[in-house]
Known about the structure:
By secondary structure, the chain is mostly beta strands. The protein has strands at 2-4, 7-15, 20-29, 35-38, 47-49. Helix content is 0%, strand content 54%.
Amino acid sequence: MSPAGERQRLTLDCANAVAGDEVRVLMAPQPDGSLKRYFNEQDTTGTLYQRCSQ
Length: 54
């Protein structure tokens, strides 16, 4: 994880039974505790991720 302005850049290793790949994502914590994932540095909308109820 490394800072990218107000966002954090994460490098993730994703794998399944067939293949593995390195994935880079941009995330930013939101005031309500959720996270937003951004497609790239120019993305101003992002996709909201919220914690599931238990």
